[in-house]
Amino acid sequence: MYPQIICHVMGSVDGRLLTDHWTEPFNGKKNELIGIYAAIGRKLNTDAWMFGKHTLCEGYFPKTFHTGDSTPLAHPVPYIAGSTSERLFVIADPDANILYESSTVRGDSIVVILPETAPAFYLEYLQKKGISYLFAGTKGDNLNIAMQTLAETFGVESLSLQGGGIIDGAFLQARLIDELSLVIYPGIDGSANSTSIFHYIGKGNPSQGQSLELLSVQTMENGVIWLRYKFHKNLSH
């Protein structure tokens, strides 16, 4: 059993994610337009939300945890902190080294996805900070295991995946996305090197055997467009 996963993302008209690369809107209200994306995200009303490690560290927790003792537990098990919010914030940290200044992001309790090889000393640190965690295989990158544990252990029925492009690409490759909530910013990037909405790091085609059905189109304020798609998955792939 997995949560319903909605990939909620805002991109330029050429499908890029780096907001500082986008052209200014004609009315000069760039921050207001990005605020529309956040407001739509709240409308999705999911049990949890998530974005990638780079995005989290850049915006919230830039420091790295250091320990001289890297010994893992022999039999690691998920940990649920004593006090958690109604909505959860999920972060994948395969390096097991984020230094947290808080146990919440925007008021929502953190749940960390870790490798089974995470140092016992780091797990103790997370428990002292009041941060929940679970495991996703030996490398911490098995998203299927992570999502199953979120559903069965933490009771998460729905999750909003909010990028960046690398984590979106990983979920796409794992065939875990049920719906795409795509907010189009009325501007252009134009750079070939910018991160795309789905930026898979790996071999092969991560979208193979998956197709989209348009559910709705809505014109928002100041030229922003909100598209919703349902994912269909060919089980033969």
Automatic annotation (TrEMBL):
GO terms for biological process: riboflavin biosynthetic process. One of its GO terms (molecular function) is 5-amino-6-(5-phosphoribosylamino)uracil reductase activity. InterPro entries: DHFR-like_dom_sf, RibDG_C, Riboflavin_Biosynth_HTPR. Pathway: Cofactor biosynthesis; riboflavin biosynthesis. Coiled coil: none annotated. Residues 3-225 form the Bacterial bifunctional deaminase-reductase C-terminal domain. Keywords: NADP, Oxidoreductase. It comes from the Bacteria. This is Bacterial bifunctional deaminase-reductase C-terminal domain-containing protein. It comes from Phocaeicola plebeius CAG:211.
